[in-house]
Amino acid sequence: MAAHYQILGSTSAAISASVETGIRTGVLAAGDALPPVRSLATTLAVSPATVARAYQELRQRGLVVTAGRHGTRVRPRPPVAPRRAARHPAPAPGTRDLSLGQPDPRLLPPLGPHLAALATGIGPPVGYATTGVHPALAEAARSRLAADGVPADELTVTGGALDGIERLLASHLRPGDAVAVEDPGWANLLDLVAALGLRPVGVPVDDEGPTVTGVRDALTLGARALVVTSRAQNPTGAAVSAGRAEALRALLAGRADLLLIEDDHAAELSRLPLHPLAGATATWAFVRSVSKPYGPDLRLAVLAGDEVTVSRVAGRARVGAGWVSTVLQRLVLSLWRDPATTTLIHQAADAYERRRSGLLAALADRGVVAHGRSGINVWLPVPDETITVTALRDAGWSVAPGGLSRLGAPPAVRITVSSLDDADLTPLADAVAAAVRPADPIGFTA
């Protein structure tokens, strides 16, 4: 904990509010340790039970995490917006930033021409009674999903993949329920699960997706929802294979008590075919975002599922945000219909494939084991994350520590390849090899 910040309060509510203030102002940073329960109780002259209740409330709200002998610490991304001055600083000057997990801006399609065309034919303003899912967008989305084997008779749109997943979890689960999530997995999803007061159950991942044994174990532990990344899994690059999909379908068949959520965020950027699980359970949803292929600022995802699930998501939206802007929906539709944009997306997919496979090959030539079957990330198992991140930073490369994405999986770092050029592969591979010596293989499955 920051030495100059003193937690205050005589009740559990006041203590938790004091910790939240520290997080919001940036004095308590991600990863900072809070005092042990008994130590803080002595300092504040309250009972240990009072401090324990405060810490429990903070955990339930996703602000802190308790990690065994490491004590209670501030979560990497607590659901409290910090003041602007408290936001994390940029990577060290002079380093190449490979830590963000974002697409290459150079490979995103231009929006200007489509916005200009939309402006000239926008028509009269819409009213509250005429909003919702744009019929033409829904028709195009159904066609695109059907081509990948996803039934999409029932469909709605949400403000991105994470928004869709949040609405799904909130409409089916209650605080304290268990959710099976990939481990390692998408850091944003782990933070969302914590913020919703749900209990994550880690499912080991290999190159073909969540392991069958891991999913079976999570079901045994009472998981009421399972979130699976179809392709380009963040951070490992895993993609559900045909064999894995068949095995998971057999395992999940007849599970009336389980919400199955599939996240196909890479969509057109993946060069691997989709092997969906959609329909394996009675309650299911398939979410496909447009942000990775077409631009992070396009906050729209298509959500297909069973009738009850889609109805719950759409109904909850009506009493909250209302709808996803029809202007945004028409912009996405224009991009989908444009052959030139389709060509650019295919070229981007080829570029990411070349950069990722090129880095993996260069690392293999140096005896370094890494993973990245699809997508824009390479997952590098390491003996010690801090040592590796520091060594690469000193060599001019900023990468993401795997701790942000792990529950119980072994240490690793994530390297985003999207902005790499061919000339970067050799010096980066040399720097990685030097940073991880000795490079004994370390798997990321249980």
What key attributes describe this structure?
globular; single chain
Summarize the structure.
Helix content is 40%, strand content 15%. The chain has 446 residues and is of the alpha/beta class.
Written overview of the protein:
The protein has helices at 12-25, 37-44, 48-60, 112-120, 135-146, 161-172, 187-195, 212-220, 242-252, 291-294, 307-318, 326-337, 339-365, 385-394, 422-436, and strands spanning 64-66, 72-74, 96-97, 155-158, 178-183, 199-206, 209-210, 223-229, 259-263, 283-289, 301-305, 377-381, 397-398, 400-401, 412-416. Helix 1 crosses helix 3 and helix 2 packs across helix 3. It is globular. The chain starts with 11 loop residues before the first helix and ends in a 10-residue tail after the last helix. It is α/β, with parallel strands linked by helices and 446 residues long.
- SSE run: HHHEEEHHEHEHEEHEHEEHEHHHEHEEEH
What is the terminal separation in angstroms?
32 Å
* Widest sheet, order of strands: 4-11-10-9-8-5-6-7
Total of helices: 15
Please give the number of β-strands.
15
* Uncertain residue ranges: 84-89
Mean pLDDT: 91
- Strand proportion, as a percent range, falls in 5-15%
Quaternary status of these chains? single chain
The main pleated sheet reads as: 8 strands, mixed
Radius of gyration: 23 Å
Shape verdict: globular
| Helix percent band | 25-40%
